[in-house]
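subagent[fold] <- orchestrator: predict structure for attached chain, return tokens only, no commentary.
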Amino acid sequence: MKQFKLPDVGEGLTEAEIVSWKVKPGDTVKVNEIIVEIETAKSLVELPCPFAGVVSDLLVDEGTTVDVGTPIITVDDGSGAAPAPSRDDAAPPRDDMAPPVPADESAIGTPAEDQAVEPGLIGGPAPGGRTSVLVGYGPRTTSAIRRPRKGGTGATPAAASAAAAQQAVQTSMMTTPTPVREPELEHVAESAPAHTVGDSAGGNGARVLAKPPVRKLAKDLGVDLSTVVPSGEGGVVTRSDVEAAAGGAAQPGSEAAPAATYRPEPGVRETRVPVKGVRKMTAAAMVGSAFTAPHVTEWVTVDVTRTMELVERLKADRDFRDVKVSPLLVLMKALLLAVRRNPEVNASWDEAAQEIVVKHYVNLGIAAATPRGLVVPNIKDADRMSLRELAEALGALVDTARAGRTQPAEMAGGTITITNVGVFGVDSGTPIINPGESAILCFGQVRPMPWVVDGELAVRQVTQLSLSFDHRLIDGQLGSMFLADIARVLDDPATALLW
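subagent[fold] -> orchestrator:
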């Protein structure tokens, strides 16, 4: 018997929620087979099994949050008996757990070969004296001390064994998400991707396909997913299917509704939702930013008729036919050109050193609203990319965010961000700066409005931009010049040829 303990997945993880099991007791698993999906404070992660055998017990229920080092599954590998704690022993109250030894934060995002791990092997020595283990579960070369949990009271047997917890699961094991087909999706408001539900097999042995929010709805309504007739593409069970099976009326378009849509029972006046995962991380980051960086916001209204004409020409261009072209793409290029003309905008504040750090690269963040909350992945070295390369990078970013697979490394190191509220029919806003960055640009909806052109009133495509910036880094003049430069390119994209 062997126990698989929740590992630190390479991002300084201290705890995670068990979202869904991909196996059930009695299933045979192979080395590196995906057995569970967890949600950390930043993303969804699929964990593979580091050994082969037959699943004996699932020690933690779906929806439960456990600390790193906690046993979550027992697998019979034929090696004989091993300590098999009960569910109560395996997942004690989190406040009573002693701090396990997490990953060295300096190793975040480090390839497996740099962490003294021999790829693809289990046990035994490797050349150079290293220990050959499964990729992602190598031995620690250093240790770090986890921040103490408030209210912690002492150690437990589960926590005492945490130092031997398996190593980080590499993000390269993630499933590639499906392409985005919606023409105006920059903010991502779709539910998470469909997954195979290991404990919902039908009578013919086929596994049921359903998204996590749909799976949760079925559980809440007491619906057995294996009895539901799927109507989604590829045999995916939708929310409407579950509601129909439960006797409720399916709502048109409800499949695309955000995961946080609540349908209270008659007479219920309040619903309490635990703050955890991405939502918890975002809340802390936004509060910290709002009360640390002195925010200033400026607005400008722009005639983007010529930008919209450019977008249509690019869509018809053979060099852009296989990528998504949108007004956001042109805005991204305009911002990068404005940064080149106003490099002091692209900076950060070093409180400890009392220095302003001007960045000579632009990691352009795109705020994305996912079912699990706001994430801000960024495009690395966006200033070095052509318009075509930007389009490809934006498409990949949106695909990953839609699937809920944005990894911590993709959200780290941003320098400036764009948030697109226009896709929701909103004109503008006063966004909060992403922590560690200098500014965030808000892009409102593009809509026809009366506009004066050459002294004559005409109907033009108009949008509103708002720029929130850190007044420690950017004074009013610099912020105004930067915003005005962006507006100039959107008003007349040919201006970019002059810069």
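orchestrator: received. Logging for downstream: The chain has a mean pLDDT of 75. The longest strand covers residues 456-470.
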